[in-house]
Specification:
This protein is largely without helices or strands. The protein has a domain of 28 residues. Helix content is 14%, strand content 0%. The model has no long low-confidence stretch (mean pLDDT 85). This is Ribosome biogenesis GTP-binding protein YsxC. One of its GO terms (molecular function) is GTP binding.
């Protein structure tokens, strides 16, 4: 897989709204401000793929 071509597609409020996919899915969970967004950006070699903020929430 080429992670350098990663891009934001959509945001869904309910799991029932998710489209069917034949690709692997990953979940990042944890407390506020522990680096989840920074990890996603680093893995994909992008600065602003996942929003990063100093303010929790």
């Amino acid at each position: 897989m080429n992670y350098n071509r990663s891009e934001f597609q959509a945001s869904y409020g309910l799991s029932s709204q998710l489209p069917e996919s034949d690709r692997p899915e990953f979940v990042f969970s944890g407390r506020s401000n522990v680096g989840k967004s920074s990890l996603i950006n680093r893995l994909c070699n992008r600065k602003n793929l996942a929003r990063v903020s100093a303010t929790p929430g």
